[in-house]
Amino acid sequence: MTVGEMLVATVPMARTLNLEFLEATPDRAVVRLPDQADYHNHVGGPHAGAMFTLAESASGAIVIAAFGDQLSRAVPLAVSAEIGYRKLAMGEVTATATLGRPATDVVAELDAGSRPEFPVTVEIRRADGAVTGEMTVVWTLRPKS
């Protein structure tokens, strides 16, 4: 099962929004929100809440891709998220996530017995390539008891 298939199977909101997981590697995750009238805002583009979910889902995909081998001993959890809406989004939008710290550093902290935190940055782009939003999600790997 791919990271995208796993997230669609286990995260009901990803299914609800019909998110398309295009790429999920430890280096980058790309997720698309198709243009769907049911999730439009008052100006006919994707609702801010749908774009937030898109970006957070992309961040989760890279976390699973980068740290999936740690899931037997740690639970990934979002600690905080901040989003900025930059330009009007219309039509489909795509979120691209990247890790803000090397995965090896995060795992080394986990190995040392701490609860590491790390940022994931996400750009949301419309089909013409314009950046419509930027998000940073801070994640942690909470050690299992």
Task: Tell me the layout of helices and strands.
Layout: H1 3-10, H2 12-16, E1 20-24, E2 29-33, H3 48-67, E3 74-85, E4 93-99, H4 103-111, E5 117-126, E6 131-143
Antiparallel strand pairs: 1-2, 2-4, 3-6, 4-5, 5-6
Protein model, in words:
This protein is an alpha+beta fold. It has a single domain (about 5-145), classed as Hotdog Thioesterase (Thiol Ester Dehydrase, Chain A), CATH 3.10.129.10. The chain is built from four helices and six strands, in the order H-H-E-E-H-E-E-H-E-E. It has helices spanning about 5-10, 10-15, 50-65, 105-110, and strands spanning about 20-25, 30-35, 75-85, 95-100, 115-125, 130-145. It has a six-stranded antiparallel sheet with strand order 1-2-4-5-6-3. Strand 1 and strand 2 (about 30-35) form a beta hairpin. The radius of gyration is 15 Å and the shape is elongated. The mean pLDDT is about 95.
Average of the residue pLDDT scores: 96
* Tally of alpha and pi helices: 4
Find the count of extended strands (DSSP E, 2+ residues).
6
Write out the strand line-up for the largest beta sheet, numbering strands in chain order: 1-2-4-5-6-3
Protein name: DUF4442 domain-containing protein
Pfam families: DUF4442
Organism: Streptomyces fulvorobeus
